[in-house]
Design goal:
645 residues, alpha+beta, four-stranded antiparallel sheet, 19 strands, 17% strand
């Protein structure tokens, strides 16, 4: 992708937020006609309000879309910044002005078009008979507080807005000369040589004094801070803690077994062999007659010599898979075979041979070779399974009761966790060295290693007032409450403890400074008079071919002025030293990737189209006299707590 795309951040935000019209999903945003009181209005568009509820709903939607897009990599903090929230508000404003413009321009969407989109969104609601399951559709919409009428109206509005979007973007085009020039820049090759001044080569020239160490220590206090820490006790209410308090009696198990005996019954199974003479039901009469005649002939043979059934099946059956096994189909239960075949097999006694049975596959001759009668598993065999199921059901009901008691008790008796532990028979545990953020080195499943819980521990209510935290759900069916035992404020490691670390850092900094000084002197000399001695072998690089090149060096080389060759450029390389680069040749590759050039032209056209839309929306916002009544604020930083009982 061109560097142009990477540097136009506002355009990228526009792509991610404005042009993704989210209303097609069943999301339940308030209608654009929603009104709120003045105190609840965050912005106005043409005098009409955008409420805090609308903004909150849009933030939740955007967070859910990002969660689906990023999966486990999604961090909710991405949406807690003022920039992210402002982007969502800008999106709402843009939608509002686009909707108003679509209406004023009389852009319409026909009912058949609406129906087609709905069918494409909910294909599972279209039955085999071609009828749409309107009842199920109503239920899906009802869960989002919508009806078919309101959903269709929303859909119609969104599709009209898309028409407007498409009309504006379709005006963009890229002149071929512009596309060619940009592709030439992208393909441009530069032959470059490196002269590296390594920091390590200047180690013997560095003189580090105690004053330098003390100066570094005083100017970089954050590097030597020991973060604040809490030692806390906590109690956990989860499924295992509840299950441990649930007992199941033998009477309960027996009652459950008697009421669900069908679940523990193994149905009858039958084993059969068959000979198949294949013919389709819709085959010509002559083919059917020939197949039937052949099947009748084989039936006569097996009736005459039943012991040869397997031999005859292997030689004549047109079901090759079972034929190789002498016609054996193994044991099968109810519903495993096609209906005519299964009915005939169920009527036979063991060892009997059927008359001809016609199915969709042809004519069958069936021999029943075995029967496994239905059996009921004895209670002793399924007792453990039943006890586990009953315990699970009882624990689920008990968990709901205990969760309410857990939440109430930690709040009402807030000075200690002993009351809730005694009441619900829970264990009080202790965790030390808890910071404001989860510890990556700790077990990720540890209930105390959770952002919500840690935030609660560092709140004024828990830290200053010495009260229990509220009951916090840190995982499905897992609640935790904590109580601060000790708090250690931020401290600074003593100088003597970190002196060796500082000496190493200062030494490396001084070495890098000497390397840079030497490199810059060399660079100045080379610019005055060209000299290729000492440089490494030339390497050809381009924006599409830069493997193995330090990213900082590559960026400097590609930005260098090459109107006069050879050209020189220098760059600091962290942890290495200072590099001087000699650019001796600039040109185009011998062969061009035409497919990539076509794709690049399409990319440029797309970017220009999006810029056209961005500019158009800005004009619409100006006409609509957009006003932001409540400036967006980021989420409170850690430590800014105002919780109270």
């Amino acid at each position: 992708m061109f560097e142009f795309v990477r540097t136009h951040q506002r355009l990228m935000q526009f792509l991610l937020l404005l042009l993704i019209i989210p209303s097609f999903a069943l999301v339940g945003l308030q209608s654009y006609s929603s009104f709120g009181d003045g105190a609840n209005t965050v912005a106005k568009v043409a005098g009409q309000p955008i409420t805090q509820q609308e903004l909150d709903g849009a933030l939740r939607q955007q967070m859910e879309r990002m969660r689906q897009a990023f999966g486990d990599r999604f961090d909710p903090k991405m949406m807690e910044t003022a920039e992210a929230k402002q982007g969502v508000l800008d999106n709402l404003i843009s939608q509002r002005v686009l909707a108003a413009t679509a209406s004023s321009e009389h852009l319409t969407v026909t009912d058949p078009a609406i129906q087609q989109v709905i069918l494409s969104q909910f294909p599972n609601l279209l039955g085999a008979d071609g009828k749409f399951d309107s009842k199920t559709f109503d239920q899906l919409l009802a869960m989002q507080g919508m009806t078919q009428i309101s959903y269709a109206a929303r859909l119609r509005q969104d599709m009209a807005m898309q028409q407007l979007n498409g009309a504006v973007q379709s005006t963009a085009f890229t002149p071929k000369t512009v596309a060619t020039r940009l592709s030439d820049i992208n393909d441009q090759e530069r032959d470059v040589q490196e002269l590296l001044f390594k920091s390590a080569d200047f180690a013997g020239q560095v003189k580090v004094t105690d004053a330098m160490l003390q100066d570094y220590y005083s100017k970089n206090p954050k590097e030597f801070e020991i973060p604040e820490q809490i030692k806390a006790e906590y109690v956990v209410l989860d499924s295992s803690a509840v299950a441990a308090q649930v007992t199941v009696s033998d009477a309960d198990i027996k009652s459950f077994y008697d009421q669900n005996v069908a679940r523990y019954t193994v149905p009858e199974e039958r084993r059969a062999s068959h000979i198949l003479i294949a013919v389709k039901k819709d085959a010509p009469a002559a083919e059917q007659a020939a197949a039937k005649a052949k099947a009748e002939s084989l039936l006569a043979q097996v009736r005459k010599t039943p012991a040869d059934f397997a031999k005859i099946a292997k030689a004549n059956s047109q079901d090759t898979a079972s034929g190789e096994l002498g016609g054996d189909l193994g044991y099968f239960g109810a519903g495993s075979m096609v209906k005519p075949f299964e009915d005939a097999a169920n009527k036979l006694k063991q060892g009997e041979i059927s008359d001809l049975v016609q199915s969709d596959f042809g004519y069958h001759i069936i021999e029943l070779t075995g029967i496994k009668p239905a059996q009921v598993k004895p209670l002793d065999e399924v007792k453990t399974e039943i006890a586990g199921e009953i315990k699970k059901q009882l624990a689920a009901r008990k968990f709901t009761e205990m969760a309410e008691a857990f939440s109430n008790t930690v709040y009402e008796q807030a000075d200690s966790l002993k009351a809730v532990a005694d009441k619900l028979h829970l264990q009080i545990q202790t965790a030390a060295n808890l910071g404001r953020q989860p510890n990556p080195a700790a077990a990720p499943t540890a209930p105390y290693n959770n952002q919500k819980f840690l935030t609660a521990l560092y709140s004024d209510e828990a830290l200053k007032n010495k009260h229990n935290t509220e009951a916090i759900e840190v995982a499905p069916s897992t609640f935790i409450a904590g109580h601060v035992l000790e708090y250690k404020a931020v401290t600074k490691r003593p100088f003597e403890e970190v002196q060796a670390i500082i000496r190493d850092k200062v030494t490396r900094t001084e070495e890098a400074a000497l390397a840079k000084k030497a490199g810059e002197e060399k660079l100045a000399a080379l610019k005055a008079q060209d000299n290729a001695s000492g440089f490494a072998v030339a390497q050809t690089v381009s924006r599409t071919k830069n493997q193995g090149v330090n990213p900082l060096a590559f960026e400097a080389v590609m930005k260098a002025d090459v109107n006069k060759l050879p050209a020189y450029v220098g760059v600091t390389l962290p942890l290495q030293g200072y590099g001087v680069y000699r650019i001796g040749k600039v040109g185009q590759p011998a062969a061009q990737d035409q497919a990539r050039r076509v794709a690049e032209q399409e990319q440029i056209t797309g970017i220009l189209a999006q810029q056209e839309m961005l500019a158009y929306v800005d004009v619409l916002k100006e006409k609509a006299k957009v006003k932001i009544l409540k400036p967006i604020a980021a989420a409170p930083v850690d430590g800014d707590n105002s919780g109270s009982k």
